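Shapes recur. One chain:

:::
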Amino acid sequence: MPEMTQTAGRRPILRSAVRLALLLATPEALALAPRPGAGAAAAAPGWQPVARGIWSLHGEPGDSSAANQGATSNLLAVRHGTRLWLLGSGPDARYTRRIAARLQRLAGGPVTDVIAPWPRAELVLGQAGLSPARCWAHADVAAVMRVRCPRCVNRLAERRGRPADPGTAVRLPDHLLQGARGTLGPFSWQLLQRGEGTPVTVWALPRAGLACAHGLLWGDGPPDLRDAGLAEMVQSTRALQAWRPQGRPIHHWLPEQGPWLEAADVAHHLSYWQALEQSVADAQARGRLPHETDAAAATLAGLSADRTAHPRHELNRQRVWRLLEDRAFDTDPAPTR
């Protein structure tokens, strides 16, 4: 990977700061009045104010490791009337109790409701530390969590470089949503797909022009295709572009990882998938082998180098290669006799 200069290293931070300043100035966001008595407390370490009664906590970039202890997914907290909603919860109960205590000092009350957007260990295992908060998920998400989460505990522990705590409990959502879309508390939501039997739910605050797209959007590099399907990711990204919850546009998106994104970044995600598929298809048509990376596959014309230089890009390329090979085998005509 090329060495990043000091100036280049500052750019993502500056972009994030500018986006946050613009977001705080959005009239729709400022219309969200704080709960009486909550005061104007400064943000606790980790939690950042987004608008009145809304905070975000940004995870570490990259995959889970001993260094970041799995705290990689972005979280969103919303005060709505007497309730405090938490979208995502973190990698374990201990971590979540710590960030929830900091959030309580900001919001003036404890977390009352926690939502599991999709079955990712780093995003949902922490809800075990939020009893007696109500635990919500779409029924399809909860069904996949029931199968995967017990295995994910040990897998995440390996990445963190330490054994799972004895008796680690997996708390499954017990308040289940049905259907393709709906509303819950301050949120509008819809059900989408990553592929491979992995549902995701995306959540919007229509009055503030904000939405969260865990599992579909990334801000710390290219999106992540591992354990996902290319066709489903393309279809879901298009659904994000078309989404107008309660007839209102979405101006800012909280991704799985990285800083806040804008509407144009959703289009960039779609362009990335389309360019990557075309690049791999062209390489296969020329008889290239999977390990032979030419300049076109490495750069993807029209896309920024920070995406194609990221480690996830090469993993995505390998994944698309296998998916296109499988597609070709499935469509090959049967041999004639």
Summary: Residues 14-331 form a domain with the Metallo-beta-lactamase; Chain A fold (CATH 3.60.15.10). The radius of gyration is 21 Å. Confidence is low (pLDDT under 50) at residues 1-14, 20-45. The chain is about 40% helix and 20% strand.
